[in-house]
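>> received
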Amino acid sequence: MTRPRPLAGPLLAVATLVLVLTACGDPVVGTVTAKEHDAAETTHGTRKDCTTSTSSTGTRTTKCKTVPTTKHEPEEWELTVAEDDGDTVEVDVDQDAYDRIEVGDRYDETAEASR
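>> returned
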């Protein structure tokens, strides 16, 4: 059984924030300093599903059952880019770009989008 990584949620939130901030600004242009691949991950667990009912006499009854849950995190490919202005950003890319681009290569988000 695969156990979820405790930092996966916060790291995903930070990466999403970086992507949102990057998407709002100028295109990313700089040198690739790192590559990261996160394999797809599926976790299984359970949760309690409860219902409460009230009888005609006013008695409240709660019934609970355990329900199986599944959470799927898709596969991700990410480049860390040192921009020409000195900032470092993380950029999600597709697998083809990830396989083609090497650490040390120049990265231009506008040029990648036109491929």
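>> The chain has a mean pLDDT of 84.
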